Amino acid sequence: MYLLDTFALVALLSAPFRMKPEARALVLSQIQNTYFSPASIWEIELKISIGKLSKPTADIMDAARAQGYKDLLITAEHATAASRLPLIHWDPFDRMLIAQAFANGLTIVTPDSRFSEYNVPLLPC
Prior knowledge:
Elements: E1 2-4, H1 6-14, H2 21-29, E2 34-36, H3 38-49, H4 60-66, E3 70-71, H5 76-84, H6 92-104, E4 107-110, E5 122-124
Parallel strand pairs: 1-2, 1-4, 2-3, 4-5
Helix pairs in contact: 3-6, 5-6
């Protein structure tokens, strides 16, 4: 079971060629077991609002759901766990993904090698 980080979510929805072919094939073969986090949606919308990302033609959340990816809701337990992680990675969105992956036994699909410092299962993409 996979949890897409923000890069992987955007890539799968708009530019799949940006992902490693092996990682893309694994995720696409397991869409029914692949999740995205509201933290990624929040991060994407913030980046759009400050001009770091261009507005996609389709709503990113609707597009993710339409392709079969599932929402992984953020709980109070996730928030507590994210705040208690060692300060290796300072990005609050990534810290939430790491906490969610640990709590739900998920492998994070990411190109960010810093995630490995938390010993969370990764699928490099």
